[in-house]
UniProtKB/TrEMBL annotation:
The lineage of its organism: Eukaryota, Sar, Stramenopiles, Oomycota, Saprolegniomycetes. This is Lipoxygenase domain-containing protein. SUPFAM superfamilies: Cytochrome P450 (SSF48264), Lipoxigenase (SSF48484). Belongs to the cytochrome P450 family. It comes from Saprolegnia diclina (strain VS20). Its cofactor is heme.
Amino acid sequence: MGNEASTVHADGAATDLPASHRAMNILKMIEFSKDPRAGMLESRDQFGDLFLLESHLVSEKIAGFCGPELLAAFDDKLRDGSIVREGAFPPGVLALLGPIMSTIDGEEHDARKAAALEALTPARLDLYAPIIREIVEAEHASWAARGGAISLACLTRDMVFRIFLKVLYGVERHDGNKFRVLLDDFIVSIRRSSKHADPHGVRCRTQILDELIRPAIANAQARASNKTPVPSVIDCLVANGKMTPDVLETEAFHFLFAGFGGVACLATNILTAVATHPSARKDLLDARAEYVTKYDGDARWAHFHDLGYVNLFILEVKRFYVAGPTAVFGRTKTDLEIPTKNGVYKLPKGCLAAAGLEATNRHPDVWTDPNLFNPNRFRDLGHVRTTKPHAFCPHAFGESSHRRCAGEDLTTLILQSTVVSLYDFVWQMVPNQDYKLAVGSSTPTPVGQLMAVGFHRRTDDAVEIIGTVGSKADWKFLNLPEAKELVGTAMDLYDDARLDLWTRLMIKLIGKKQAVWDRPYANQILRIPQHQKPLPKITLIQTNIDIATEDEDWPNQPWLEIQQSNFLRDHAPFVDNFEHTWLPGEDMERYVMSKVGSMWPRVNVHWNDRYSDRALELLAFNGFGQHLLTKLPEAHDDGSYYGICLNFMKSLEVRPGYAKYGADAFFTSKGKVTKIIRGDIASRPGDSGWEYAKLCFRGSLQTKVTAVDHLLGIHATVANIMVVANREQLPPTHPLRRLIKPFTFRSVAINYGAGRALFWPKGMLQRAYALTDKGMKQTTQDAPAHRHNDAAVP
């Protein structure tokens, strides 16, 4: 790291700056005037820490000061009055801003600064801290309640504005967003006010004063009269009475427009840094673990001094990210002599003097690897505001009583509160978004607005603070032209990491179809048979079953819908997620219904008992297992009289991570379950593995009944053969054909769709079950042997 300042100066009288530190170039001056931020950095690199820009064509001269040694010299000149703020602002800007503290000099400035600092003492900050905590926690809780995709950048700005209204003015406005928009417009208008105050900016300032600030001051004065002040800056200033009414209005507005943008920028870029610097993210997680172990509950909000790495992280965010003006301007009132380690140099009277803040915060001779985000650079620096008052200057430089920002500690408190509250949450960033900082703004935040999904309360202390939603395969798929046409915006696809991309998109696709569904009625939709002819067919994949493709009553599925469904089936990543599981105490059924409830058919029978022994018995004797129930050749010693035998399914190949299918369930003659045999292991009611054994049996039963008996048996075989025989073998007028017709309504359309969507490799059936490609083939090819419940009973 560079030294704070050098005391070594060359002997001899002051001299003019050498040519290597000067530019006699009107274009340089114009470029600097248009973009002081870039001009300061470029001039520092080209001409050194002290430079002078001038031209024979204009009388204006620009002197640049960079680095701690020169900022200290600039600060000294401000103190002794040889550099003043008067004349440093364009007349239009000065008219727009009014005579705010940063534009005035001498005793008047010092008096205002002292009054402002009284409202921002450590004791006053202790009063503001609970207010900040309440707002931050409420805002973060509301983010979690939103669901879907959210902009962390936009929501952070809203949160910080609420804090400013409450802490500065003691108000909680439901129409606060209106004032934030007015403030944004006012700040933009500053750039348009070089020669004359921008009229719209003036109107914005007037409206904020009339509708927000003056009423807030009046309320604070009333509270002071009633001796019922609230913790706010304005209440403190009113009570102290050290500002005249006009000055109080001016500075109350100044605190808002000069402070809000920078604090909101820093609070936002805390999240930017978390998202873009993985090593810092790991250190933050370690710091969180240490802090929440040491402090619990309310104690976490009382020991910000002990946040460890978090405080280093905040310092680096302040150094690394621009959050306000990048230079302090003044006007040289006399000819100056500026001492440096290389000599004493002259600067002429009347030149515009610019002290580079960013140019010093990113100075390669002051900070090691200045363009690298590294919070650990502050680990051994102690109280950096004291040890490096002219090297670390996100809040200007020097002492707070002079030109350093009075709100520095309030800013730090807001940032600390933000991080501590976020300790209780996790979220995922939408990938492929633009993290580049906006160009042309004095408070730049990411262009992509920090879009995140799945913002929710933390349930696992070991989980990383944030992640990136979706897999690389997901986003490779979503970048395909066909996927973009199908999906549109992908932001709303990642509100919950437990659903894979295929599931999300299928819900979206089916939801669109359901939204336009028009319930058919028999007297409107059934047509009199017209033709007897051979039907076009396709062979169901991995079987020898030919299914018809031309429905007599129902139009073919739209071509685009078919292509989208096939594209999703064939190209969406096929993943098995064993990482994201149920949350503690989560209502699993409610969760599922939250995703598909809008498409769910009306429930006529509410079966709330799903997992008990009685539920299993009802499933076997009265539910979808009853057609598989067989009487055993001989009763077992334990009373087993009936059985549903599915252990043959253990031969089906499953994907890594899944248990094998298969289980035999046995029941007494009265229908009471006695045992479940899975492989060679028998489990009975009350055993430690009983609930797991029931789970395995239910899963095997559901898979066998759905894939084999329902889809292959009823749909692809019975319904398919009936409709084909009816339409190919019987003439349209045959009474039997007309009798059968209502019972085969839409069978062809359903079977044809199922052939594409369910049975195909990577289709809905395989994604819903644990089967490999080989397992799917085993299921379809072995189906005839098990369709009529002729499995041997052990």
